[in-house]
Design brief:
22 helices; five-stranded antiparallel beta sheet; six-stranded antiparallel beta sheet; 670 residues
């Protein structure tokens, strides 16, 4: 880059207006405004201050500032941007030019230049010395480029990148086959490879050449021709056609930082993740990977609330994590045997969520309205809009979970011979304590590059602007963050979460109202009891489980996990197959008994027919007469068979002696 000074003929821009120095003195300079031609005088001190402030820029007014809207001017290009070989070449040329023509004027005669160039070449260090000194004509060519560029050292860099043979353009006849094949085969969601696309191109060429004379046949395309044409297509278009619009945007767009947050709890992000570790239930049974629900404050990066369970993310886990975030943590840390203070609490101003089903439930919406919390949903399939919590979930898995026994790592192929289930020894309660201890005593004290401090110090710094807000009482928070359900009261009590609950209050309600539907609020962390709303007094009362030895102290997630494991163990036993076989045999025996005892079915009358005999038609009467005649002829005895004829039956005689006279004296009727 060439240097400039406030001498006569120097051009620059001052506050965006072009000026040229018409006259230069020791203290002042006469400037000419190139737009209107006016002259004005300015001191060299003022011009120096304008240059330091950036309002004065030296430039060649005949040359544009930049080639594109986002390009910087040419003077901001550095010698460091070229290759090492080009830099050494420019350094050698500069050595010759500064020694022979420091200001552009040659100090030696042309006949003396050859010896001077030889002498200067010998003065160069061994790594820069040329095998033979440059010729005089080469020196003058360097000098001309140097002067025309304004004594810029970049003009002395050799363009080694322009050497070599330029690529031969693809013949037009081949382009007629290559371009359609790229559009129809390569730029498709099937993501056809370049090799297969090349085969398709050559296949079309072979088909075309079958009907052409030998002199007019088209040669086959090469892989280099195909890749060159593919590279000329816009990268965004190629990615969008092959991988979809979303993937194309992810691979081509540069995402900056989100809006800066300056207040505590102004932006709070919530999300879930499965932890990369196998945990045990509180009863000692083997479970699976637990899920972690996290609430983080973006301004300070402090963790507001956590909830760990075996159950998949649901509305209940979100509500319990929100309750944990709002309330102070003193009692929680005391139960977890953590002695370090953690003064993080408060009602969030706005929570940012994704579009999972648990975030669109009515319970969360009601809690947000009751506590005056604004809910913002990020665009679907765009985790970058809540990148703070996404990054933290990765950090706890990589920096903590992968160090515990029973870790599963983030990918199955990373486990190798590690048996995560066999190594699992940490119960869920102990895992919850370890996670909180890591958050309070490790993460909150770790240096954060974005904050330029640790999260704990950032929280204390922002607390000076005002403490977080809290509801009227802790009971209000627990009431609002409890899920509401409807259950029907029966003779067995109330059934919810595979448990039955009874109490004196339920007996009184059933004696008055019978089997009615009641509003209940189950304690998802302790299935030993539930809260039931009295339909008369509108107050809640407790109902206890009929199996307190099992239900007391166990959470809903642990109960679901225990039942799932019990069902899986039962499926491995032979009882299930034996049960199915017995059921099939019993059913076959029942069907056999039913078939043996069944009565014959009576013929059913067709619909539309009246009961009784139907009247025969004339044709039927004629057929019946002929049949009777044939039968009579067949049964008439011949004279030879007279002995075989039966004797006629005697007539019945009437016994008149048994007749009685009529009561009125009339004669009996014969």
């Amino acid at each position: 880059m060439s240097n400039s000074s406030f001498d006569v003929g120097c051009s620059f821009r001052l506050n965006g207006r072009p000026y040229r120095v018409r006259d230069a003195g020791k203290r002042n300079c006469v400037l000419e405004d190139l737009k209107d031609g006016e002259l004005e005088s300015r001191s060299r001190v003022d011009l120096g201050r304008a240059f330091a402030n950036g309002t004065l820029v030296f430039e060649d007014l005949l040359r544009p500032l930049a080639d594109t809207a986002y390009s910087m001017p040419e003077e901001f290009q550095s010698i460091a941007d070229v290759s090492e070989r080009a830099r050494r070449d420019a350094q050698v040329k500069r050595h010759f030019l500064h020694a022979i023509c420091p200001q552009g004027h040659v100090l030696y005669k042309r006949t003396e230049l050859r010896d001077k160039l030889l002498e200067l070449n010998n003065e160069l260090p061994d790594e820069l010395r040329l095998a033979s000194p440059p010729s005089v004509s080469s020196f003058y060519a360097w000098r001309q480029k140097w002067i025309q560029s304004g004594y810029s050292v970049r003009s002395l860099c050799s363009r080694f990148d322009l050497r070599g043979r330029h690529p031969v353009p693809t013949p037009t006849a081949l382009l007629e086959f290559i371009e359609p094949t790229i559009q129809e085969v390569f730029l498709t969601p099937n993501r056809v490879s370049v090799s297969e696309t090349l085969d398709q191109v050559n296949g079309r060429i072979e088909k075309h050449n079958r009907n052409q004379p030998l002199a007019e046949q088209i040669p086959r395309a090469t892989r280099r021709m195909l890749t060159r044409e593919i590279s000329r297509a816009e990268r965004m278009l190629v990615l969008e056609r092959r991988y979809g619009k979303r993937a194309a945007e992810q691979k081509t767009r540069v995402y900056g930082k989100s809006k800066r947050v300056t207040r505590l709890l102004e932006r709070v992000e919530i999300d879930h993740t499965p932890l990369d570790v196998i945990a045990l239930t509180s009863k000692g049974g083997l479970a699976a990977r637990p899920y972690l629900t996290t609430i983080i404050d973006v301004a300070s990066r402090m963790i507001l609330g956590l909830y760990i369970s075996f159950r998949a993310p649901n509305t209940g886990s979100v509500l319990r994590a929100l309750r944990n975030a709002i309330l102070p943590k003193d009692q929680l840390l005391k139960e977890l045997r953590i002695k370090t203070d953690y003064e993080v609490y408060g009602v969030p101003i706005g929570i940012y969520l994704d579009n999972a089903a648990e975030f669109h439930g009515d319970d969360l919406a009601h809690v947000a309205l009751d506590l005056d919390i604004s809910i913002y949903y990020c665009p679907r399939r765009s985790p970058r809009f809540k990148g703070v919590v996404e990054r933290w979930l990765k950090e706890i898995n990589y920096n903590f979970m992968h160090l515990l026994p029973g870790t599963t790592f983030d990918r199955y192929f990373k486990r190798g011979d590690l048996d995560s289930i066999k190594d699992a020894v940490i119960p869920l309660d102990d895992l919850n304590r370890l996670v909180w201890k890591w958050v309070v005593e490790v993460y909150s004290r770790t240096w954060h590059r974005g904050l330029q401090t640790c999260p704990r110090e950032k929280w204390s710094e922002l607390m000076a602007n005002g403490p977080p807000a809290l509801p009227r009482s802790a009971g209000v928070v627990e009431f609002y963050t409890s899920p509401v359900d409807q259950r029907t009261l029966s003779s067995k009590g109330i059934e919810i979460n595979c448990q039955f609950y009874k109490s004196e209050g339920l007996d009184r309600v059933r004696s008055v109202h019978g089997d009615i539907e009641l509003t209940v609020r189950p304690d998802l962390d302790n299935l030993g009891s539930i809260a039931v709303l009295d339909p008369d007094s509108k107050r809640y009362f407790k109902a206890h489980s009929t199996d307190p030895e099992y239900a007391e102290g166990i959470s809903l997630e642990e109960d679901v996990a225990i039942r799932k494991i019990a069902a899986e163990k039962y499926e491995l036993l032979p009882h299930r197959s034996a049960l199915l076989s017995a059921k099939a045999e019993i059913w076959q025996e029942v069907q056999a008994i039913k078939a043996a005892c069944a009565k014959p079915e009576k013929p059913t009358r067709k619909p539309g027919k009246r009961p009784g005999k139907s009247r025969p038609t004339r044709g039927q009467l004629h057929a019946m007469a002929q049949e009777a005649s044939r039968q009579q002829t067949a049964t008439t005895p011949t004279p030879e068979d007279s002995d075989a004829m039966p004797a006629p039956s005697p007539r019945r005689k009437v016994d008149f002696s048994k007749l009685q006279s009529h009561p009125n004296g009339q004669q009996p009727l014969l």
